[in-house]
Amino acid sequence: MVAIRDLGVDDVDALVALYQHLNAGDAPPTPAAIQAAFTHPGLRHFGVFEEGSLIASCNLMVIPNLTRGGRSYGVIENVVTHADHRGRGHGQVVVRHAVQQAAAADCYKVVLTTGKKDPAVWAFYERCGFDPSDKRAFVIRRPAGGLTTSSRLC
User: Fold this and answer.
1) Which domains are present in the chain?
2) 117-144 pLDDT tens trace
3) How far apart, in whole angstroms, are the C-alpha atoms of residue 107 and residue 104?
4) How far is CA 109 from the centre of its chain?
5) In 54, 112, 113, 115, which residue has its Cα 20 to 30 A from 123's Cα atom?
6) Where does the N-acetyltransferase domain lie (predicted)?
7) How far apart are CA 57 and CA 82, in angstroms?
8) Where are the beta strands (DSSP E) in 1-152?
């Protein structure tokens, strides 16, 4: 039986283990990062469980906004399904759940980005209802020394 629910601090070990299927070799989060991730207003983590094991997850951040009549928007990140459970719809279940929760929070849109260059991953997000032609994302990554206001930035 498959169940979906909000994740809490008690789920951290299972979630960090699952994240190895997203970014293998990632260092584990610090206790401060765990605390911040589970107490940040508007940030929710969702998990799909099969026979008590966490097999898929994503998070949703609902961000207050002053445009669009003051309606918030949502950002979905860290979408992952355990490698042994892919291709069975669990990823779609967790992403659709996050989108439903964003709708319940009256978000006017939901944004999702991916760093994956695999067209199959893109097709997955399209099957979940995301339009790849609607927006363009630009990213600045934090270099080892941290973000600065160097001449390379605006």
Assistant:
1) 2-127 (3.40.630.30)
2) 999 999 999 999 999 999 988 888 877 6
3) 8
4) 15
5) 54
6) 2-154
7) 9
8) 2-6, 43-50, 53-63, 73-81, 110-112
